[in-house]
Design the sequence.
């Protein structure tokens, strides 16, 4: 299926690098506890359609992407959350109990200070339904200008149009910064809002499919071209992620 923009919901993406004084495991535990506490609030139960915590999982995928010159990370954590409209987000982000829990979490483990958070434009391509053997890779890439994001999007389109990608993937999503008019909602909570981060998700049919994709000579050549033009291997990290849904 061709790529498409999601119009029936509004997405916020959070990118966090685990602070040096905490292990990834401890940071993830604290993130999970905060998200559970927030989801117990009536305003969050009412308005959230989705809230996923995405945690890196060590695997052979790490060495396969290092082979194409891209850093693998076990120190980054992602969240992807959805409400139906901006008004639903206003209700959530303006709630006093949400504010209190977020501020306490920032004091305790740097929930805000470690974050790059943005309302996202999401472009998704879906080829097939997922399976129990799916392996999801996540790519966090700095693209500081609209021009660089457009170029990155062009490389991603070319990559996912390749026959091996069509064979190996269930789904892929490109999540970049959306309209800046919503930034004040995040800044009010003390969440830094970047203008340079893109998150790419690739839902591989299996771990073997993920490894084969990035070992393919044509894919390697495309990454060489992207590296030469965008330095994306210097300005990004990737990992295979375990996705825990906080919304039933």
Sequence:
């Amino acid at each position: 299926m061709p790529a498409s923009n999601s119009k029936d919901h509004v997405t916020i993406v959070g990118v966090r690098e685990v602070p040096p004084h905490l292990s990834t495991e401890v940071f993830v535990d604290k993130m999970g506890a905060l998200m559970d506490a927030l989801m117990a609030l009536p305003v969050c139960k009412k308005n959230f359609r989705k809230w996923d915590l995405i945690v890196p999982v060590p695997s052979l995928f790490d060495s396969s992407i290092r082979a194409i010159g891209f850093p693998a990370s076990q120190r980054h954590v992602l969240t992807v959350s959805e409400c139906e409209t901006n008004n639903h987000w206003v209700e959530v982000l303006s709630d006093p109990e949400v504010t209190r829990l977020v501020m306490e979490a920032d004091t305790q483990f740097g929930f805000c200070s470690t974050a790059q958070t943005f309302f996202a434009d999401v472009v998704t391509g879906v080829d097939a339904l997922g399976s129990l053997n799916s392996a999801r890779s996540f790519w966090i890439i700095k693209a500081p200008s609209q021009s660089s994001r457009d170029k990155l999007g062009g490389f991603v389109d070319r990559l996912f149009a390749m026959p091996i990608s069509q064979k190996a993937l269930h789904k892929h999503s490109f999540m970049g910064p959306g309209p800046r008019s919503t930034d004040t909602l995040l800044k009010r909570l003390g969440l830094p809002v970047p203008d340079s981060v893109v998150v790419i998700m690739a839902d591989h049919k299996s771990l073997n499919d993920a490894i084969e994709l990035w070992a393919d000579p044509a894919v390697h050549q495309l990454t060489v071209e992207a590296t030469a033009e965008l330095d994306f291997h210097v300005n990004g990290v990737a990992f295979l992620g375990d996705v825990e849904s906080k919304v039933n």
In short: The chain has a mean pLDDT of 88. The domain at 4-245 is CATH 3.30.70.100 (Alpha-Beta Plaits). The first strand starts at residue 4 and ends at 5. The longest helix spans residues 24-39.
